[in-house]
Backbone:
């Protein structure tokens, strides 16, 4: 903990209310550390931040071509979506192409993360299916992969299933960290998740940013996924979500992906940089704020409304009155921190 | 930050995923510190943890008697409720007794925090009113107070309104900390909130626990509020909420109240102790976990299913599979930490 640094703070009427600590690292594909702060060595669970890496086999194994997956589907395979109608439609279409329906998904079911979509579903007397699970696009991709490689789809979430073995090998190759039983746990959507150093996560996304350090087929897959994500930012998250708002404004120069428990990755293709952030307490809001600051700084963007908003986000009460702000630490933002919150 | 201590951690397959740091203090009404860890001196915003203190004037000024408020209403005045039908009914009844309806409330409107209640509302085509605001019981109490003391109810949330002046004086007296413009901010429900040291918050609730150090009328009011809360734990929060679950099992021996941004207070009347916890990052889950540990330790309770659950709370994925746990730090729990999580 003492190795960690201040990522972001909330203030109320100028008085600090809450403080988030953690680590952040920016790397290039050759393993050079461009910036590091906090404990970047202790393994962390990257959670949903590795989705774009988990999607590489969709392309390298030929599943995307076999099922003629459109870019929106490739983006949804990399997404933690909010269960909005557009997301459900694409996830459902992915499964239809394989001849399956949502009954094949083993990710579990929850109400849409988007409150409006949940209320709309309830208003029409419906209940959610596994398609509404924020990981349904990724899981639909696993089904496409299983069908392409001739595997039985049953129990595709288990570590011993060939689909998960392919995922594990891919993650191991791209991050350079062994993915074994020793560092394996179970993710929110039932598939394995492996704890790796934050530095390895940043390195993997530096490789993803440029293709450098990847095999030719994976480099080509990374290019195609970057393009799919950049042209479908809504698919990656949804209404009012950080990833979507940032990429709607800044893709393809900037790609981002949040993960549960305060993890965030950023891809800067023009600079060939990968970035990874872990808010130690699991606070997603702080990971977003820190990411905005480091994007501004390392992509040298000082005129982005979205970045400005997330670097100094106004906090409002139930009457819509601004009562404070969530602000990136000056250690991270340096002179890119806006002088005032943008209300 | 370096003064703070580990409150709670989440683990996934035994590997630490997230860590929460903060401060906790246990005091008696004479100002003796029974336990302290972390920075208990820097002012923090107590948020909703002071609701029982804000309710004292309801009794001392005669509003509860004038409007014959039942214990459920007194409890709701101290609550951050989830907007469930039972809460709405009591809040509505409080206002009816004054001749007003929800239109008088200035707390703002939001959908019920309880997801089932939100979906039920949406399913019947309704939208929420200010009654669904988690603070509507407290605000209904303010209306009762304004009517009793002959004040115009308009703008009752403003610092200069006589009702808020009464609240400020009460908080200042009971905590022993000046409540001025300098430490005042605006709370989520639009009324003032004042930053005070965590130690002052614990001291105030030690006084509330026993009446010691309070004027006779406030001591009597505290006794009546403790009884009202203890006999209505559902009113204080709602379905599956920490405060409700703990008090359904342990009241009147243990009273608890959460506040936004990771604050928690505990009242132990038998021991005459007050306790206050601030999770520095604002994490409510960690404040709950830490509170469970300190309750077990300082009330010497080693056979409570609710405390055991919250000291080592299993974390499940969307399939209901246990994938990790949220565990109190051993610094806080010591030998009261259960050997295994209770699944």
Residues:
């Amino acid at each position: 903990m003492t190795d960690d640094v201040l990522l972001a703070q909330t203030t109320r009427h100028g008085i600090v209310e809450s403080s988030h600590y953690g680590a952040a690292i920016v790397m290039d594909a050759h393993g050079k550390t461009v910036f590091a702060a906090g404990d970047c060595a202790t393994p962390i669970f990257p959670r949903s931040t590795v989705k774009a890496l988990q999607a590489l086999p969709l392309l390298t194994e030929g599943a995307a071509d076999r099922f003629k997956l459109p870019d929106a589907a490739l983006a949804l395979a990399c997404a933690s979506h909010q269960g909005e109608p557009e997301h459900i439609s694409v996830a459902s279409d992915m499964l239809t192409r394989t001849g399956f329906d949502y009954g094949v998904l083993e990710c579990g079911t929850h109400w849409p993360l988007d409150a409006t979509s949940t209320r709309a579903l309830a208003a029409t007397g419906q209940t959610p299916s596994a398609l509404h699970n924020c990981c349904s696009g990724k899981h639909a991709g696993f089904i496409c992969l299983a069908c392409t490689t001739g595997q039985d789809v049953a129990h595709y979430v288990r570590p011993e299933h060939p689909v998960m073995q392919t995922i594990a090998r891919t993650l191991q190759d791209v991050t350079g960290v062994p993915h074994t039983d020793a560092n394996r746990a179970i993710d929110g959507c039932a598939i394995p998740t492996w704890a790796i150093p934050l530095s390895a996560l940043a390195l993997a996304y530096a490789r993803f940013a440029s293709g450098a350090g990847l095999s030719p087929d994976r480099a080509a897959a990374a290019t195609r996924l970057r393009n799919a994500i950049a042209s479908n930012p809504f698919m990656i998250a949804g209404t009012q979500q950080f990833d979507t708002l940032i990429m709607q404004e800044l893709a393809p120069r900037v790609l981002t992906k949040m993960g549960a428990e305060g993890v965030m990755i950023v891809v800067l293709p023009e600079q060939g940089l990968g970035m990874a952030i872990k808010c130690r307490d699991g606070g997603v809001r702080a990971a977003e704020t820190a990411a905005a600051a480091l994007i501004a700084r390392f992509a040298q963007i000082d005129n982005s409304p979205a970045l400005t908003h997330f670097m100094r986000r106004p906090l409002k009460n139930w009457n819509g009155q601004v009562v404070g702000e969530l602000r990136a630490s000056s250690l991270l933002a340096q002179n890119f921190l806006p002088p005032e919150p943008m209300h």
